[in-house]
Amino acid sequence: QVQLVESGGGLVQAGGSLRLSCAASGRTFTSYVMGWFRQAPGKEREFVAAISRSGAATNYADSVKGRFTISRDNAKNTLYLQMNNLKPEDTAVYYCAASQRLRRSTARSDYDYWGQGTQVTVSS
Fold first, then answer.
1. Is the alpha carbon torsion for 18, 35, 108, 68 positive or negative?
2. pLDDT, tens digit (0-9, with 9 covering 90-100), for 37-84
3. How far is CA 40 from its chain centroid?
4. Which of 54, 55, 89 is nearest to 69 (CA)?
5. Cα–Cα distance for residue pair 6/38, rounded to 1 Å
6. Distance of CA 1 to CAs 30, 73, 97, Å?
7. Three-state secondary structure call for residue 120
8. Dmax of the chain from CA atoms?
9. In 3D, which of 1, 8, 5 has the Cα closest to residue 78?
């Protein structure tokens, strides 16, 4: 199995940027498709972005497309989420997740391991 620890969250003004990191340990990082999800207060946890095992393929939720970029450094066992032009509606706890499936997925149920989350707050 794999252990995931997110970092990089914080408070930022609208229009600002943050970069989240997710450090993985345990089983080989390249064994997993990786994803980012987020959960705002009173809402369901929702898909943000996913990346293939090699990092060659990505997909995004429509709400973040063009503003967020998911990437991974397999040599450092680390997943990233670069978030630009942040909006108040991006405020949420952000979670990284690992999936043993072969293909990228937007479904929470397809992810097997989760980090503890990092808070992102965007002020208007």
1. positive
2. 999 999 999 999 999 999 999 999 999 999 999 999 999 999 999 999
3. 14
4. 55
5. 12
6. 12, 19, 12
7. strand
8. 41
9. 5
